[in-house]
Design a protein that fits this description.
Layout: E1 2-11, E2 19-29, E3 34-39, H1 45-52, E4 60-65, E5 68-69, H2 75-78, E6 82-85, H3 99-107, H4 124-132, H5 151-163, E7 169-173, H6 181-198, E8 202-205, H7 209-215, E9 218-223, E10 226-232, H8 238-257
Parallel strand pairs: 3-8, 3-9, 6-7, 7-8
Antiparallel strand pairs: 1-2, 1-4, 4-5, 9-10
This protein binds adenosine-5'-diphosphate (ADP) and magnesium ion.
Adenosine-5'-diphosphate binds next to strand 2 and helix 1.
């Protein structure tokens, strides 16, 4: 379970561009569930992920994961139990390393090791089996540098790497937004399979109302630093959700234009 208590975050403090993104924000994410996060552009979804994963420091408030306060842990320490997939397919992988090296890195995230010891030959078959489940032929390309992969292949690899150590929390930030519809579907289905098979506690930011509804157990809509809607996916249909989403987006774009 993730608990966010009384979170506050401003950018550009003391300048004319000062921006309050969160001011007393509270949210609890249930263990083993996938929570879809919707909200207008710029409402603070990625900032929330950056704070949870330790990329940004909040001005106030607490983050508790399974009852432990993680406020004082660095990003690198949090990454041992928080998996993250970004919108940009290049961000979760090291492009100049091979598929095998990338997977080995995420598999060894919790251990100290020398570079020479990165590749554990005994694990190659296991990695191949994991890659095979993607059905993209990556298991036959272990020594290919990741920069030669397509966006969809990279994103699939990022997803596998983010989940290989079965994280306490999985953060997905519009992780299919940069992909074509077919690849996006493939990755979403793979995402669901991984979440369900490992009962991963997941937060999934999406710009796609239908995906959020179909692939999450619960939907949260953020607006102006607050939870504007919090429903079980089974209790709302796409049309109703779309209506609320569009009206919120419309209000936000009006506010921005002022
Ligand atoms: N590091 C930063 N420095 C200054 N402003 C930022 C920073 N990160 C995000 N912002 C601003 O905070 C607001 C929320 O951004 P973000 O969390 O990326 O929104 P989104 O909901 O689209 O993911 C935006 O206005 C954005 O410009
Ligand atoms: Mg974002």
């Amino acid at each position: 379970m993730l608990e966010i208590k009384n979170l506050s975050k401003k950018f550009n403090i003391g300048t004319e561009n000062e921006l309050t993104v969160f001011d007393g924000f509270n949210l609890t994410i249930n263990k083993g569930e996938c929570t879809g996060i919707l909200g207008a552009n710029g409402c603070g979804k990625s900032t929330l992920f950056n704070i949870i994963s330790g990329v940004l420091t909040q001005d106030g408030g607490e983050i508790l994961l399974n009852d432990e306060n993680i406020n004082n842990l660095k990003e690198s320490e949090r990454s041992k139990f928080i998996g993250r997939v970004h919108q940009n397919p290049s961000m979760g992988v090291s492009p100049s390393l091979t598929i095998l090296e990338n997977i080995s890195l995420s598999d060894k995230k919790c251990q100290k090791f020398g570079l020479k010891k990165l590749i554990n030959r005994n694990k190659i078959d296991e990695f191949k089996e994991i890659l095979k489940t993607l059905d993209l032929g990556l298991e036959n390309m272990l020594n290919t540098e990741v920069k030669f992969l397509s966006g969809g292949q990279r994103q699939s690899l990022s997803l596998l790497m983010a989940t290989i150590k079965k994280p306490e929390l999985l953060l997905l930030d519009e992780h299919t937004a940069a992909l074509d519809p077919k690849t996006s579907r493939l990755i979403m289905d793979k995402t669901r399979e991984l979440i369900k098979s490992h009962s991963l506690t997941t937060m999934m930011i999406s710009h796609n109302v239908r995906d959020a509804l179909n692939y999450s157990d619960r939907i949260i809509m953020l607006d102006k630093g607050h939870v504007a809607l919090d429903v079980r996916s089974k209790d709302i249909n796409e049309k109703e959700l779309m209506k609320i989403y569009n009206s919120r987006n419309y209000e936000s774009s009006l506010a921005e234009a002022v």
